[in-house]
Amino acid sequence: PMVVSTLPEDKRPSACIGCRSCEAVCPQQIKISEAMADFTERLKG
After folding, report:
1. Is there a contact between 1 and 41 (Cβ–Cβ < 8 Å)?
2. How distant, in Å, are the alpha carbons of 4, 34 from that of 37?
3. How many domains does the chain have?
4. Which UniProt keywords apply (predicted)?
5. Which residue in 27, 28, 41, 44 has its CB near the most CB atoms, within 10 A?
6. Concatenated DSSP letters for 8-43?
7. Dist. CA 40–CA 28, nearest whole Å
8. How many Å apart are CA 23 and CA 35, to the nearest integer?
């Protein structure tokens, strides 16, 4: 989590807008938008 705070605001998980365009090209079929939302909530906690 501390490393996340060193990232520019536009590169942090909270910057994800949930458009899911990254999921369309993910070879592992990861639900990235859900993961980013979950990670953002965990960082707030």
Report:
1. no
2. 14, 5
3. 1
4. Iron, Iron-sulfur, Metal-binding
5. 41
6. -GGGSGGG-----HHHHT-TT---HHHHHHHHHHHH
7. 21
8. 11
Q: Taking the model in full, what pTM does it have?
A: 0.77
Mean pLDDT confidence for 20-38: 97
- Residue 15: give the domain boundaries: 4-44
The model's pLDDT over 12-25, given as tens digits with 9 standing for 90+, comes to 999 999 999 999 99
- pLDDT value at residue 1: 57
Long-range contacts of 42-45 (CB under 8 A, 24+ apart): 43/1, 43/4, 43/13, 43/14
Question: b/e per residue, 18-45, with b = 16+ CB within 10 A?
Answer: eeeeebeeeeeeeebbeebeebeeeeee
